[in-house]
Amino acid sequence: MKNCKNKSVEGFSLVELLIVLVILAIMGGVTGYYLNSHQTLYKPDDQTLKIIDILQEARQLSLTKRETMRVEIDLTDNVVRLIDENKTATDTDDEPVRQISLLDAAEVNVEQRATNIANNPPETLPTKTAVFSPSTYPPSTTHRVCTLRFKSNYQVVDESDTPTGITLHIWSPSKSNSGEAEIARAVTILGTTGSIRMWEYDHSSIAANKWKDSRRTGS
Is the pLDDT of residue 157 over 60? Predict the structure, then answer.
């Protein structure tokens, strides 16, 4: 029987290990940069879709339950609430249905239209920019709130039962100017029909009104 000689196995040198670690660190940094950019890009879309979801739920519940459903976009608590008003003659029986949290305004702004956007989306009926004013409903009394009330007759009304069409602007502030939008979305709600539509702003468009219908609607 022949004797087998052990063959020596050479390992990695310290220099080779350092080179591998440097390459891994560079790749990790590049991946992290693009991942963060990707998340920043989709924050306005994510927030817009969450708001649309709660608006559509309010509309659907108002029709199926035959009751007024109230949506409060509360900037004081930075949340959106869905509330079943039950008997609209009193607010003592208001019943919270669900609530979602909004992103910080430094990441996504919903309070006003950005200064580098001149128009609201070209809806079939006029819509005004959402106004945030002191709430008249507990427990959000005195909070800065945009109130939308979905009625069982398809209409969307304000606190005084007046049909109201609004545009809610949702945008990420530019790093160089916090008043300008880097990425902008909008939600339109038509007071007479209750139609809900999402819009995307195209900065590169040469049209006078750069809003494009995203085709994501609820009617």
Answer: yes
Residue 113: Cβ within 10 Å count? 19
* Residue 62 is assigned to a structural domain of this protein: yes
> What is residue 36's predicted lDDT score, i.e. its pLDDT?
54
Please give the DSSP secondary-structure letter assigned to residue 43: H
Give rounded-to-5 percent helix, strand, coil for the chain: 25, 30, 45
Asked if the structure places residue 24 within a domain, the reply is no
- In DSSP notation, 51-78 reads HHHHHHHHHHHHHHH-S-EEEEEETTTT
Task: Determine, yes or no, domain membership for 61.
Answer: yes
Identity of the residue numbered 198: M
Domain that holds residue 153: 40-218
In a domain, 51, yes or no: yes
Instruction: Encode pLDDT of 46-100 as tens digits.
Output: 999 999 999 999 999 999 999 999 999 999 999 999 999 998 677 788 999 999 9
pLDDT at residue number 126: 87
Within 8 A by CB and 6+ apart from 187, the residues are: 48, 51, 52, 55, 167, 168, 170, 196, 197, 198, 199
Q: How many domains does the chain have?
A: 1
Tell me whether residue 29 is exposed, middle or buried, using C-beta atoms within 10 angstroms of its C-beta: 0 to 12, 13 to 18, 19 or more: exposed
